[in-house]
Design brief:
Distance between the termini: 28 Å
Order of helices and strands: EHEHEHEHEHEHEEHEHE
Number of strands: 10
Mean pLDDT: 94
Structural class: alpha/beta
CATH class: Alpha Beta
CATH superfamily: NAD(P)-binding Rossmann-like Domain
Radius of gyration: 15 Å
Helix content: 25-40%
Largest sheet: 10 strands, mixed
Length: about 200
């Protein structure tokens, strides 16, 4: 199962760190070129490689974590998704103001799903701050919780299994319309809830 990451900001690099720690290979891309990521990826060894956007998007599971306004451009012109899994790690806000955006009644993951037609979208990796996400998930005698949601049960099962391999405790919140809304920042009650499952 190959993994790609589109977006090499705080969240993208935090996910890359969790993958590297678990010994899971991945390709990460930014809006510039692979060479520009050399310094950022040095600490991860060869298990996380820099690639083009097209290379990262060709993986079986593709995590997307870019600034909200740059999403259309980051996803434009990519090959057909053909049922592959897209993990939506985005939130519909941008620094420094973090003002809520008008999504016309949609949950942010539903907007993302419209940009990746043919993909099976799972919302995950968006509710914790990057520095917490990058930290050791084994804490206080338990495992740090990661929420996920989606409309395809098989895709959710695969993302849930990945979350487990990374050492986190995954909690399925249901559909994108329900779970995506709970975990969306701003507006949802779950962002920045650093919870630990004991046992």
């Amino acid at each position: 199962m190959s993994i790609g990451i589109i977006g090499a900001g705080n969240i993208g690099l935090a996910v890359a760190k969790t993958l590297a720690r678990a010994g899971i290979a991945a390709t990460i891309a930014n809006s510039r070129d692979p060479q520009s990521l050399k310094e950022s990826l040095a600490a991860f060894g060869s298990i996380i490689e820099a690639g083009t956007r097209e290379h990262a998007a060709a993986a079986d599971i593709v995590l997307i974590a870019v600034n909200w306004s740059k999403l259309p451009g980051a996803l434009a012109g990519l090959p057909a998704w053909n049922g592959r899994i897209v993990i939506d790690a985005n939130n519909p806000v941008e620094a420094p103001l973090y003002k809520p955006l008008d999504l016309h009644g949609l949950v942010s993951s539903e907007v993302v799903a419209n940009l990746v037609a043919g993909a099976r979208v799972v919302k995950a990796f968006n509710h914790l701050r990057a520095e917490v996400l990058a930290g050791d998930p084994h804490v206080d005698g338990g495992r740090r919780v990661l929420f996920y949601s989606g409309d395809d049960s098989a895709a959710k099962a695969e993302v849930g299994a990945l979350i487990d391999r990374l050492g986190f405790a995954g909690i399925d919140l249901g559909s994108l319309a329900v779970g995506g809304k709970l975990a969306q920042f701003p507006g949802g009650p779950l962002p920045n809830q650093n919870l630990v499952r004991i046992g």
